[in-house]
Design a protein that fits this description.
It is a peripheral membrane protein. This is Phosphonate ABC transporter ATP-binding protein. Its main location: membrane. One of its GO terms (molecular function) is ATP binding. By secondary structure, the protein is α/β, with parallel strands linked by helices. It has a domain at 1-80 and 215-261: 3-Layer(aba) Sandwich (Rossmann fold). The chain has ten helices and ten strands. The protein has helices at residues 41-48, 71-78, 96-101, 110-115, 120-133, 148-160, 178-195, 206-212, 235-242, 245-260, and strands at residues 2-9, 18-25, 30-34, 56-61, 64-65, 81-85, 166-170, 199-202, 215-220, 223-228. The strands form two sheets. It has a six-stranded mixed sheet with strand order 6-7-8-3-9-10, with helices on both faces. Helix 9 (235-242) packs across helix 10 (245-260).
């Protein structure tokens, strides 16, 4: 279970990017985070694995409080937090297999890491996962020889090699064409179900969020405006998240009242 309580992120003396966010995610499900640019979507995801340091608040993953961890403890905790990036974050000169196996760097010793000598069980798991997502035939190809969709599948497998307890995807389809982006969303949806894995996806495409995720969280200027099922994400919610300030204030007051009641 992921539990975020009163999360605040401020840069210097500027207005906070995140303003007291609360979010709980239990069990295997796919949750989309939607909102306009600057709403705080990427910041929230990156606070979870502390690529961005929270200003205050609490983030707990399966009873482990992440915000208070020291460097050594944080390195160990990050092994259980898979991350899929918009820009893929692959090492182009390395093969697909080498990129995939980099997901095990947190589990091997220094010699194994620098020499890229991984245990056979890691190699076997890499082949199994690559077969599952349809890229096993590219195992010995350089990463820069692949298409965008193929590169993103490598990123997904690399994250799964960590044996994560949660998967974070930061705009995983933003660099892809419409057909390929839908294929990646279907893949994340099916992997969540197969592996009993909670998945949080920061996404701009509201249509895909409604089609491929089980829950939508809407942010506006660092505040949660909507949290509910895709079927409940109506024009009122859309206007509150992307429209005028009055609609946002009305939705925020409504959600606050419902929580209190």
């Amino acid at each position: 279970m992921l539990k975020i309580s009163n999360l605040v992120k401020r840069y210097g003396s500027d207005e906070p990017v995140l303003k007291g966010l609360d979010l709980t995610v239990e069990g295997s499900c796919v949750v989309s985070i939607v909102g306009a640019s600057g709403a705080g979507k990427s910041t929230m995801l990156r606070c979870i694995n502390r690529l961005v340091e929270p200003t205050s608040g609490s983030i707990t993953l399966n009873d482990l409080e992440l915000v208070s961890l020291g460097k050594g403890e944080l390195r160990r905790a990050r092994r259980k937090i898979g991350m899929v990036f918009q820009g893929f974050n692959l090492i182009d000169r390395l093969t697909v297999m080498e990129n995939v196996l980099s997901g095990r760097l947190g589990y091997v010793n220094f010699f194994q890491a620098v020499s890229r000598r991984f245990p056979q069980q890691d190699i076997d798991r890499a082949f199994t996962l690559m077969q599952r997502v349809g890229i096993v035939q590219y195992a010995n190809k350089r990463a820069d020889e692949l298409s965008g969709g193929e590169r993103q599948r490598v990123g997904v497998v690399r994250a799964l090699m960590q044996e994560p307890e949660i998967l974070l995807a930061d705009e995983p389809t933003a660099s892809l064409d419409p057909k390929t982006s839908e294929q990646i969303m279907v893949l994340l949806q099916s992997l969540s179900d197969e592996m009993s894995l909670p998945v949080l996806i920061n996404i701009h495409n509201v249509s895909q969020a409604k089609t491929y995720t089980e829950r939508i969280v809407g942010l506006r200027h660092g505040r949660m405006i909507f949290d509910g099922a895709p079927a409940d994400f109506n024009k009122e919610a859309l206007d509150a998240i992307y429209g005028g300030i009055e609609a946002a204030e009305e939705m925020l007051e409504k959600n606050t009242w419902e929580k209190v009641s």
